[in-house]
Task: inverse folding
């Protein structure tokens, strides 16, 4: 009984290490396959349009509502200490440092990530990737790499839109509806937000999340079992692994950036 | 070298399950060679091995002098540029139109001007009778039409070797006859070599120069269609004349029905 338990732990550890090793090799294979994109940037721009554009509405609406909530919650809390003038600063810092990159990455995993996994998985199930190989076209270069880089590029842009609309949401609720002083709202934000410490670190976070989420999505699609159940399982795995990965990376990056 | 493709002493298995054993086959240049056999006999696996998508456990597959199973990926891709393959279900790119599907290999491997690509694609589509479907998406055409588009795409670059995986499955009688003639005419016009994997005895025998019969991963008979039609070999007779009784078992091996129903004691 104990021997079985120990052996199952050993087997699980070995499989996990093997999977991590395989994923790492695949990551470098995607990077190696990316050279062609410099000669054919259109492959990436088409995918940025597809991935970025389709995620835009959900990101924009979410950013606005997160801003509304931040405006309300921030006001309730700051008002207790007579500091409601700092609402603009609170909203901007919350969004640029944390909520912008993290919530965008989580929404991106749910919207674009699942779509990427399902698309590549179904291409595999329909033998489209095999057909491409037989036409001497490497699917890693033609299908996976353009989608991967499109996700990496789209993520910080979407996070910027999320944060900008979040600030607008905080302004609408805090200034227009509740009546916080407009001058204080903007001037405190301008004085307190540092372009490098806050905004650049936020952008860096979203680039790292872009790498993580998009790689998980394309990898799961490429490695999916070519059956309806296989694609369905891969899509679920994309959301679970990408979301947990984003939260873990966020903790790590926050510890490194804002000490 | 008279043979474009030569297979020698080929063994292939999926894990513990053997698929092909001790295979020796020759595919002469300029000929249409049919590979026939029941479902699960390993026919499609042979095409995938020739295309380098699978690697055998032992043996060699030589295409145009190159041993496919020892090539690195760069040389394998270079060799594949001389091959065309028609997949069983077409494998069209569902996000592209019929026109763009056929244009795909031309765009990927040539720098031809757009008007020349257009002319070439329309000629290929004319050959398969689908020129007027050029702007439709794969979801808007039938399965048979999709396979005809895939055929046009497979020959877009005028390959030296064309592999057809079940090109007649699911086609109506008119399309089947037209497709069979097209395979023969394309082969002769391009001076290429064709490997035809099929169940369809009538159409395959009508266009093939040579036929291999495969059963359980081994060659059980081979010859010209005329030789095989006259063959007294029980396997060939059963397959060619679609007989239920013969050496090819219809039922998957295992217990008898009487045993499963409890009417006999399992041995």
Result:
């Amino acid at each position: 009984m104990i021997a079985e338990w120990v052996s199952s732990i050993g087997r699980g550890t070995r499989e996990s290490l093997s999977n991590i090793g395989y994923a790492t090799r695949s990551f470098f294979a995607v990077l190696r396959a990316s050279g062609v994109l410099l000669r054919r940037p259109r492959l990436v721009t088409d995918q940025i349009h597809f991935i970025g554009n389709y995620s835009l509405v959900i990101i924009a609406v979410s950013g606005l509502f997160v801003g509304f909530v931040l405006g309300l919650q921030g006001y309730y809390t700051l008002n207790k200490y007579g500091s409601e003038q700092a609402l603009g600063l609170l909203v901007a810092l919350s969004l640029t440092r944390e909520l912008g990159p993290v919530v965008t990455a989580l929404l991106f995993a749910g919207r674009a990530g699942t779509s990427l996994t399902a698309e590549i998985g179904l291409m595999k199930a329909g033998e489209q990737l095999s057909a491409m190989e037989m036409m001497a076209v490497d699917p890693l270069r033609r299908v996976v790499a353009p989608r991967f880089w499109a996700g990496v590029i789209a993520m910080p842009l979407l996070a910027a839109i999320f944060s900008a609309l979040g600030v607008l949401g905080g302004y609408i609720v805090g200034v227009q509806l509740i009546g916080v002083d407009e001058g204080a709202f903007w001037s405190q934000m301008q004085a307190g937000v540092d372009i490098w410490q806050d905004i650049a670190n936020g952008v860096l976070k979203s680039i790292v999340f872009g790498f993580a989420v998009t790689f998980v999505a394309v990898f799961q699609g490429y490695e999916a079992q070519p059956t309806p159940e296989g694609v369905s399982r891969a899509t679920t795995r994309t959301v679970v692994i990408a979301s947990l990965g984003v939260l873990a990376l966020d903790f790590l990056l926050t510890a490194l950036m804002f000490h | 070298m008279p043979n474009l493709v030569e297979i020698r002493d080929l063994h292939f298995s999926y894990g513990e399950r053997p698929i092909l054993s001790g295979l020796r086959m020759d595919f002469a240049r300029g000929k249409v060679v049919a590979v026939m056999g029941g479902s699960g006999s390993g026919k499609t696996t042979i095409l995938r091995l020739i295309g380098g998508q699978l690697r055998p456990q032992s043996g060699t597959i030589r295409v145009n002098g190159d041993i496919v199973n020892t090539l690195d990926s760069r040389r394998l891709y270079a060799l594949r540029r001389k091959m065309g393959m028609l997949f069983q279900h077409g494998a069209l790119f569902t996000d592209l139109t019929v026109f763009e599907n056929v244009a795909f290999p031309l765009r990927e491997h040539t720098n031809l001007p757009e008007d020349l690509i257009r002319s070439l694609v329309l000629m290929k589509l004319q050959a398969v009778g689908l020129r007027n479907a050029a702007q439709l998406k794969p979801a808007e055409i039938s399965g048979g039409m999709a396979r005809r588009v895939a055929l046009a795409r497979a020959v877009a670059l005028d390959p030296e070797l064309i592999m057809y995986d079940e090109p007649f499955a699911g086609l109506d009688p008119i399309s089947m006859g037209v497709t069979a003639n097209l395979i023969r005419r394309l082969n002769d016009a391009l001076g290429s070599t064709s490997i035809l994997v099929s169940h369809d005895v009538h159409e395959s025998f009508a266009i093939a120069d040579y036929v291999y019969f495969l059963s359980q991963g081994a060659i059980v008979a081979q010859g010209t269609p005329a030789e095989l039609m006259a063959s007294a070999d029980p396997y060939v007779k059963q397959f060619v004349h679609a007989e239920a009784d013969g050496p090819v078992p219809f039922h998957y091996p295992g217990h008898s029905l009487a045993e499963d129903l409890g009417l006999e004691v399992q041995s």
